[in-house]
Amino acid sequence: MDPVIRFRSAVALAGNFPVLAGVDLDVTRGEVVLVRGSNGAGKTSLLRACAGLLRVVAGEAEVLGSDLVRDQRAVRRRVGLLGHATALYDELSARDNIRFALRAAGAPVGAAGPAMEQLGLDGRLAGTRVASLSAGQRRRVALAILVARNPELWLLDEPHAGLDADYRDLLDGFIAGAARAGSTVLLASHEADRAGPLATTVVTVGGGVVTGVSAGPPAGPAGAGSAGAGSAGAGIEPEVAGHVA
Amino acid sequence: MWRDALVVGGKDLRVELQSRVTTTQVAPYAILVLLLFGFAFDQDHAVLTKTAAGLFWVAVLLCSLLAVQRSYAIEAVDGARDGLRLSGLDPAGIFIGKAVAVAVQLVVLEVLLGLGVVILFGTKLHDPALLILSALCATVGLAAAGTVYGMIASGLRVRETLLPLLILPVVAPVLLGATQSWMAALGTSSTDGWKWLSLLGSFAVIYVAAGILSFSTLVEES
Fold first, then answer.
1. What are A93's strand-pairing partners?
2. Are B86 and A52 in contact (CB < 8 Å)?
3. Residue B127 Cα distances to B80, B179, B181, B189, B194, angstroms
4. Which of A100, A222, A227, B30 is most buried per CB count within 10 Å?
5. Which of A101, A96, A123, A110 is nearest to B16 (CA)?
């Protein structure tokens, strides 16, 4: 089995607060891992740490063979993160945002066209300023960047939020396709009924640590047995202010 | 590094072209500052002509604060800064790209303000080479220092008010050197403007080097 994520007692701080308080986690290539847990359990922090955006200050943390404790930047071009924020520039068009993101990441700009077409961003929307797009359309632009980049590790934080039924189905297809193609997907979601069937592994986090790992889709409510709160199909989680999301 | 600088600088300039903040807000502000200086010294045109260089560079300095704040404001919206970090760009490339974009905007404003100074203050040019070289060195210095301190302030909630406090003392040598150099170039002072140009050049080199060396830490920690 080809390890993609290997965390041992990994600790990450936001200010002085340990948002990851000793995480142990193993993920291998091609897995689709559903990360569950209540609000503030550390799901977003875990994804950000895997992306090299949150510094791991103690323990061991390796992602795609890069030691994040020594160099958190090394892995960034090989992972893609779709978070609560879309990381788009309001003044630029959807097309210009996607092209910039691909150039910045050293990915071929030619991949923009097919991704935009798949996500219904061709035609009029392509040249529309992002500031004029709806939340769902902005989400599709961010998703198009991820699809065009086709990273080795997909980090998805509540990826279904803001998308309508058709694009939710499309997103599920992308996730399944990425895993089939050998990429690995880490998916944080409260929508267990939606994200659950996609998962090969379910990881439950609570209090900044992994409290449970099981194979296959989850049977119970999100965070059941350890983190507590949350329920299957709970819907869109609002952005949580502070150091843990 | 250079490729990344091109990508970031091109993006920042494209954002400015689309938003037109520089042309519709900063440029009118700069002209307004010149006009107010003109009103304040209107009683004595000789004083106005003699102080034109200083007034010009004070106006440029105020505009540079706006340009730097704008450069980081676009990264503060909707997680754009995380997107920049996640793209794996070379921090030195980010620094150079952002500084070049600020410098390009400042050059445009300087041309506009220069015309304003000639028309409003009636200044005459004695040494165009000194004037142009001084302007280039001062612009590089302002853009580089502004980009470094803009990044330091960008992670703070009070960044809008803190940035001028951080930058203004640091770029005081630029204001002094550019003013003295321009006074010589405009023939309003007998000082050796080329000596002041060497100070401007040294300052520019120091701040570009400091930015390249420090930006990796600043991008991660600010």
1. A129
2. yes
3. 44, 14, 10, 12, 11
4. A222
5. A96
